[in-house]
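Anyone up for a design puzzle?
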């Protein structure tokens, strides 16, 4: 049992937000449900080279969220998809979740900026400053809002100059299994 403790601590340690990054409170997960378009992200191997990336959130009966991430590999004109489950790390009113795509590994998902009025855009941190996403309900985000979010990310210590602006334009080919827009 003692041998398992470091492994469990390592897995749990991958869900907390980075030091100095605070998830939002007064969060309404019902308003967050639905489709989001990835506007910008820091590069990581799970999405490397993908365009037209979206995330779909649905409520599960147990209070968790079903997460479906999709992205287009344009060269092959094929969609890549990963389905996971997100659970709140504490109260559901705090936008801090643990997401599992491949059991038993979990990662933190912390909403650190949000359009409180319309839930039209959000900025999300992972468990370290190596993970950051800017999301919107539409494939494009107002340039002024995008610039403000990038500046906020820089102020929080994220490498904002390394953000990849995600191509959400119409694919040049007709993929066999395109997600609904």
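Challenge accepted. My sequence:
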């Amino acid at each position: 049992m003692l041998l398992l403790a470091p492994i469990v601590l390592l897995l749990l340690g991958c869900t907390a937000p980075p030091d100095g990054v605070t998830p939002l409170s007064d969060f309404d997960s019902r308003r967050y449900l639905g489709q989001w378009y990835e506007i910008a992200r820091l590069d990581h191997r799970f999405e490397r080279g993908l365009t037209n990336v979206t995330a779909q959130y649905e409520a599960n009966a147990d209070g968790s969220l079903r997460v479906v991430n999709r992205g287009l590999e344009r060269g092959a004109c094929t969609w890549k998809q990963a389905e996971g489950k997100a659970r709140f790390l504490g109260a559901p009113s705090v936008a801090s979740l643990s997401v599992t795509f491949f059991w038993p590994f979990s990662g933190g998902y912390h909403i650190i900026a949000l359009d409180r009025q319309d839930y039209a855009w959000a900025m999300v941190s992972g468990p370290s400053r190596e993970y950051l996403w800017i999301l919107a309900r539409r494939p494009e985000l107002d340039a002024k809002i995008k610039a403000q979010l990038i500046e906020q990310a820089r102020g929080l210590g994220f490498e904002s100059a390394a953000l990849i602006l995600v191509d959400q334009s119409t694919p040049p080919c007709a993929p066999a299994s395109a997600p609904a827009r």
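A detail worth pointing out: The longest strand covers residues 78-88.
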